[in-house]
Design brief:
The protein is an alpha+beta fold. The protein has helices spanning 14-23, 28-36, 89-97, 103-124, 135-154, 184-190, 209-218, 276-288, 319-329, 376-386, 390-400; strands at residues 2-7, 43-52, 55-64, 86-88, 132-134, 159-162, 165-167, 171-174, 177-180, 197-199, 229-237, 247-254, 260-271, 293-301, 305-314, 336-344, 346-354, 357-366, 369-374. The longest helix has 22 residues, at 103-124. It catalyses: Ni(II)-pyridinium-3,5-bisthiocarboxylate mononucleotide = pyridinium-3,5-bisthiocarboxylate mononucleotide + Ni(2+).
């Protein structure tokens, strides 16, 4: 499968995303043909190869026509709005829906705009429908977001990962005055997202609302670059002078498709002073909360005390819920956290009819290899209801094959 990794060592913005993706080798003519399907007028887009810190990067400028003498060269102030005519979320979705772009591009673009609008609505205590994207920012953002979706489609990307987001500090000037970095909309999108976020000693904004909106909706995981065969590297230029190499790096490559894989959070903690009955309760509660796996390992701790190590595997979106349960329900004072990549066989549940009744069976596949396992609870219920040995129910399932 084709994989894309966003290395956000200098933050992320809409134009940096578009520049980095184009720098990977997207055909400019093909891109412009697709973007023209948007039926959005009043602008032109310029791609320019430049050197930053002696490294070749692609710089993107969206130039507005007529009286709008604005472009990306002003940095990212456009994302925070100017005093021009405005479009709301419904207006932008109509522009996207009325285009001839393919459905994947449309759906992703609308998802990003909804994410940004939802954050702005929370910040300003308004309904999402009342949030307006000011004209300058709206055109820039539409081109950046839809353009990024077009590039992902043209590059035929199957999976996306990202590094932690590196941002600056200080203040930024916008329509609403002088606001702290990260700006409220960015901070709102970070909330409850489990996106790792690092503040650097740089006195400016490096993560913009459009940038985080794109990566939040695009990335399937955040952390170190996954194991992959690297094919191409692209750099998208940032506009601000940060005193360092200001660019977004995109790394494209391939992963082995024979075995499905994903990234999970692994949480560990040692416990030596809890009632075993409560440990059982905690295990059940963690599974009910959506943990992928929970188990205890016997260990010996200081003073030769018998103890257990609690290990929980969970997806990133369940991490905070799992952490809350561990801290509230156990005596531990801290939790160790790591990322892990895992291999998974394809699996499905099928129903097998036996002379005793129907039994659900988990079927797992790896290439041509296949294995299956009857569901214990189904077999147990049949054994009790039919008054037959449990092993006999299992054998009936095995005889059927899959």
């Amino acid at each position: 499968m084709r994989v894309l990794y966003f290395d956000c060592f200098s933050g992320i913005s809409g134009d940096m995303v578009l520049g980095a993706l184009m720098d990977l080798g997207v055909d400019e003519e093909a891109f412009r043909r697709e973007l023209a399907k948007l039926n959005l007028s009043g602008y032109s887009i310029v791609f320019e190869k430049k050197l930053k810190n002696s490294i070749s990067v692609t710089d993107v400028n969206v130039i507005l026509e007529e009286n709008h003498n604005h472009n990306h060269g002003h940095g990212h102030e456009h994302e925070h709005g100017h005093g021009h005519n405005a479009r709301n979320l419904n207006d932008i979705e109509k522009i996207i829906d009325s285009s001839d772009l393919n459905s994947n591009v449309k759906q992703f673009s609308k998802k990003v705009f909804r994410e940004i609008a939802k954050a702005e609505a929370k910040v300003h205590n308004k309904p999402v429908e009342e949030i307006h994207f000011h004209e300058v920012g709206a055109i820039d953002s539409i081109v950046d977001i839809v353009g990024a979706a077009i590039c992902i489609d043209l590059l035929k990307i199957d999976r996306v990962y990202s590094s932690p987001l590196h941002d600056g500090k200080g203040f930024v000037d916008c329509q609403h005055g002088r606001l702290p970095v990260p700006v409220p909309a960015v901070l709102e999108m970070l909330a409850e997202s489990n996106i790792p976020y690092i503040v650097e000693d740089v006195n400016t904004e490096m993560v913009t609302p459009t940038g985080i909106g794109i990566i939040k909706c695009l990335a399937g995981g955040f952390g170190n670059m996954p194991v992959m065969s690297v094919e191409r590297v692209g750099y998208g230029a940032g506009k601000r002078d940060t005193g360092r190499f200001n660019a977004l790096r995109c790394i494209m490559g391939t992963m082995d498709e024979e075995v499905n894989g994903d990234r999970v959070i692994v949480l560990n903690t040692n416990i030596d002073d809890m009632n075993p009955e409560i440990l059982g309760f905690v295990l059940d509660k963690l599974f009910e909360a959506g943990a992928l796996d929970v188990y205890y390992t016997p260990v010996y701790m200081k003073k030769n005390r018998p103890a257990v190590e609690l290990t929980v595997l969970c997806s990133e979106d369940k991490e905070q819920t799992v952490v809350d349960i561990i801290l509230k329900e156990t005596t531990t004072l801290g939790i160790r956290r790591t990322f892990a990549e895992r291999y998974k066989m394809d699996r499905e549940i099928v129903k097998v009819s036996t002379r005793y009744g129907d039994v659900k069976v988990k079927v797992s596949k790896f290439g041509e290899f296949k294995k299956f396992a009857p569901e214990y609870e189904d077999c147990r219920e049949i054994a009790l209801n039919k008054n037959v040995p449990l092993w006999e129910v299992y054998n009936e399932v095995y005889k059927k094959g899959i």
